[in-house]
Amino acid sequence: MPEIRSNSELLVMLQPDAHVPLHRQIEISIRDSIRAGRLVRGASLPPSRVLAADLGVSRGVVVEAYQQLTAEGYLTSRAGGYTQVAAGAVLRVPELRPARPTGPAIDLSYGRADVSSFPRAAWLRAIRSALTDAPNEVFGYLTGRGVPQLRAALADYLNRVRGTVAEPEQMVICTGYAQGVSLLMGVLAAAGAKRLALEDPSSNDDALPAARAAGLEVIGVPVDGDGIRVDLLRDSGADAVILTPSHQWPTGSVLSARNRAELIRWATGRGAVIIEDDYDAEYRYDRTPVGALQGLAPGHVVYAGSASKTLAPGLRLGWFVLPGQLTEPMAAAKIAADRGSPALEQVALADFISRGEFDRHLRRMRPVYRRRRDALLAALARHLPGLEPSGVSAGLHLVTWLPPGLDEATVVGAARQAGVALDAVGPYRISNPGPDGLIFGYATVNERAIAEGVARLAQVVAGL
Ligand SMILES: Cc1ncc(COP(=O)(O)O)c(C=O)c1O
Questions:
Q1: Does residue 9 carry a pLDDT above 80?
Q2: pLDDT tens digit string along 397-407?
Q3: Which residues have CB under 8 Å from 276's CB, separation 6+?
Q4: Considering the entire predicted model, what is its pTM?
Q5: Nearest CA to ligand 1 atom 6
Q6: Residues 458, 420: contact at Cβ < 8 Å?
Q7: 307 CA: nearest ligand 1 atom
Q8: Which residues line ligand 1 (CB under 6 A)?
Q9: What is the position in ligand 1's atom list of the atom closest to the CA of 176?
Q10: Which residues contact 404 (CB under 8 A, 6 or more apart)?
Q11: Fewer Cβ atoms within 10 Å of its own Cβ: the N or the C terminal residue of the chain?
């Protein structure tokens, strides 16, 4: 018996009150799924009575939609009553095929989530249940903290999985980490902070300009294999520091237990604030999870999380858990900025987490990313054995340091010419020099393309 597609894969969502008849709405959804490639040639559709029951419509409505799509050549009826996507269906609409990518053929840059794996069907259910179940108040003006359901769901999740000590009242939902850290810079400056330390190198494109705009002086503090150099941080006179303790971006080092203790001692003694950017902690491959620093010193650490690596950056959802004295100013800054993030997505994420869909998605993605990471390591070992990978046990990227004589900007430029996009470490350095290095993001590329990308890179390097 052929594999039957479920309604969720067809992405049929009916709007009973719309002016478009129901059979036409079903037709449009299925046609779009075929054109977008979500339904491939030969895929079987649910029997009309099953889809009708699923959608709460009469069977005749579905039959009419199937008949229309069959007449247009998108579907075909098989013996036994099965309806399938016809062989030539996609070729009938060449103008809707995705345009050829104009960028580099193999994109190994930065380390982003694979948005082609975004759990559309489960998210659709979450959005639908948000619309059906959310109380009316959710659609009014919000407090700066964000919708209570999401803060409660996130506090539960973070306390369970990341070892935080988070109360929903201490949380502020933001438009991603980028907005939250930008608001926080203003909050800290208003509270009297003068100097902000950043890990050097670090992902400095959000925090650094925001800190400067808020009037803070920014200094870079070097990182080594144990995370930030706490001795140098201590000497820096910083009032706040932004860290990626679980998997330093980009070097991948993990903040050692000793450094954690020393950092907390420093923050406590100085009254300084530690901002913990926990951007990719959910992806651990061959080491036990590293708990959040916030759990050790909730009075001194601002914990920041984001849906960008776990789900998709386009959701623009981030969350901040703040020490008591910073919560109200941060919520006020959020209100002043935009009156709060869109409610529907917040309620949907709450539903998504509470129903276990978030855990399920992560369970599904971890082995996918791990296989890609393994493919990258194998290709590096085979084609570029002189490059030592680091920070490989977690996240969506790794770094290789270059031997003396190889210049990162030259390698990145030549690789681009050969159709491989990569990032160099240099642009992420703040003030401290260090070895040249390459950042490989492996999450959005399949294993074969990863191997091909590294092979091309090896040819490039051999020609320099
Ligand atoms: C180091 C780091 N922090 C945080 C984030 C998340 O940022 P945002 O939530 O604004 O997308 C990213 C995303 O790529 C990142 O690389």
A1: no
A2: 999 999 988 99
A3: 243, 244, 245, 292, 293, 294, 301, 302, 303, 304
A4: 0.79
A5: 177
A6: no
A7: 9
A8: 176-178, 203, 244, 249, 277, 279, 306, 308, 313, 318
A9: 9
A10: none
A11: N
